[in-house]
Design goal:
By secondary structure, the chain is mainly beta. The protein is built from three helices and 15 strands.
């Protein structure tokens, strides 16, 4: 039996799709300067008070050191629950009247490498197929996550994905620092995972034990970048394989009315 046609912003059940609902939370992002393609990255959907946001890394929107100044981004959207190969690009400007329209945060240590861009839901295709995290999915930094806990980072490393069904891939990770503690005074914790360029902006999640049967994942952080040691001998020493994930509770601040 064919899957039922989803309504705008509401997805068919994962059982009918026979795929993990988590995979529909992630969005493949392309950055552009006019028509010129620049970079590829990852992001995910977050919903609050009936408003929909795209979440990614701040350096995807703008990165002064590398002179990365896109003026728009494009995400790929599924359109048909019965045919995941059917997708379309959805373009969103980053500036209006010369001013940036994404939101980014700061704390006592400086800029936080997380940005959100509100999506105009009325502009989405009527059959747009996606899933979105909500504030109820956020992990309270005050609640413990054991060191070594199993996590997933879901995104598009080096723009790699299922090119037929337009699906992301999940990399296994573990919690590598004390969750809730600001590592080095910064607003992130560490993960131990193999990551690549293009993973920036991916959700860092942990399986829920109870609750949210349709999307049973706890949102812990937003993957930013790999960490390295400046004194590492490039010939003798392997890369650390550690990454920083900014605490996802910053989304409560960035998505306020």
């Amino acid at each position: 039996m064919a899957a039922s046609k989803p309504t705008r912003g509401n997805t068919a059940s994962p059982s009918r799709l026979q795929i993990e609902s988590l995979l529909l939370c992630a969005a493949r992002i392309g950055t552009f300067d006019g028509k010129r393609g620049l970079t590829n990255a990852s992001g995910f959907f977050f919903e609050r008070d009936k408003r929909l946001f795209l979440v990614t890394s701040r350096h995807v929107m703008i990165d002064e050191p590398s002179k990365h100044f896109p003026d728009r981004i494009e995400i790929e959207l599924h359109l048909d629950a019965a045919n995941l190969a059917h997708s379309t690009g959805f373009s969103m400007p980053l500036y209006r009247d010369g001013k940036s329209i994404w939101r980014q945060g700061e704390d006592a240590s400086g800029e936080i490498d997380v940005a959100v861009l509100e999506i105009e839901r009325d502009a989405l295709p009527e059959t747009a197929l996606y899933r979105a995290f909500t504030p109820a999915h956020l992990q309270d930094p005050g609640q413990p996550v054991d060191i070594g806990s199993s996590l997933l980072i879901v995104g598009f490393p080096l723009n790699f994905h299922d090119t037929l069904h337009h699906m992301p891939v999940a990399r296994h990770a573990v919690n590598a620092s004390s969750f809730g503690l600001r590592f080095g005074g910064e607003g992130y914790f560490l993960t131990d995972a193999r990551t690549h360029r293009g993973t920036s902006g991916s959700p860092v999640v942990m399986r829920m034990v109870n609750g949210h049967r349709d999307l049973p994942w706890r949102l812990l952080g937003v993957h930013s970048a790999s960490l390295d040691v400046g004194a590492r001998d490039l010939k003798l020493d392997e890369a650390l394989g550690l990454n920083c994930a900014w605490y996802a509770d910053i989304l409560l601040t960035l998505t306020e009315q």
